[in-house]
Write a structure and sequence with these properties.
Layout (H helix, E strand, L loop, with lengths): L1 H10 L6 H8 L13 H19 L1 H4 L4 H18 L1 H8 L10 H23 L9 H21 L1 H4 L5 H14 L6 H5 L13
InterPro entries: Homeodomain-like_sf, HTH-type_TetR-like_transc_reg, HTH_TetR, MT1864/Rv1816-like_C, Tet_transcr_reg_TetR-rel_C_sf
Organism: Zhongshania borealis
Protein name: HTH tetR-type domain-containing protein
Length: about 200
């Protein structure tokens, strides 16, 4: 798996090959098929591992008692993960592995990710920090879409998205403004300290 991830990082999704991996490892070209029925099965396993690592990065946000700060920390962790592990991020959330329910473990990991956002929104309702503008699922998907949009802009259009300031600063400003729109008291978000979510230093 480690070698496959190395190939993913250096060559991208299109260049990853089971046969090439077999040659590099020094086994027969059919050996990898004992573990993965095809390339997409290997990619699905890699993406599932990516979610596992992402969930570790998100632990700080889940342990934050304030729902608004928790959502901000989740968003920043998401953006930083995308920035530091771009190929893995594209694999996890991109169109290659569709339909997701063909890969049960990957599908379950994706569901777990959205449930983490949903849990934060529900906590915000219960503590009267987040306004209930719609049902929990709809609001959780709206938060997800906003966070994913910030990450994608940073990765694909950083030269225009953050042209006038540091990209990380712009990402935090964007997420703060989005969360302020959900808060019962929008001014509260401006009082929050800069989110101290430690950036992941490795994909390991």
């Amino acid at each position: 798996m480690t070698l496959a991830e190395k190939h993913l990082i250096t060559g991208g999704i299109g260049e990853l090959s089971l046969r090439a991996l077999a040659r590099e490892i020094g086994v027969s070209q059919t050996a990898p098929y004992r573990h993965f029925k095809d390339k997409n099965a290997l990619l699905a396993a890699l993406a599932t591992e990516g979610f596992r690592r992402f969930f570790i990065v998100c632990e700080a946000s889940e342990n934050e008692p304030r729902a608004d700060l928790s959502l901000l920390m989740f968003g920043l962790a998401y953006v930083q993960f995308a920035k530091l592990h771009t190929e893995m991020f594209h694999l996890m959330f991109g169109p290659v592995l569709q339909p997701r329910n063909d890969y049960p473990e990957l599908f379950a990991a994706g569901r777990e990710a959205i449930y983490k956002v949903r849990s934060g929104v529900e906590r915000g309702f219960k503590t009267d920090v987040i306004r209930q503008l719609d049902d929990v699922a709809s609001m959780a998907h709206t938060v997800w879409a906003a966070v994913h949009g910030v990450a994608t802009l940073m990765l694909d259009h950083g030269d225009t998205y953050g042209y006038h300031r540091d990209l990380d600063l712009q990402a935090e400003k964007s997420l703060r403004m989005m969360i302020a729109g959900l808060c019962t008291d929008p001014s509260d978000i401006s009082k929050l300290p800069t989110a101290g979510t430690p950036a992941p230093t490795s994909a390991e």
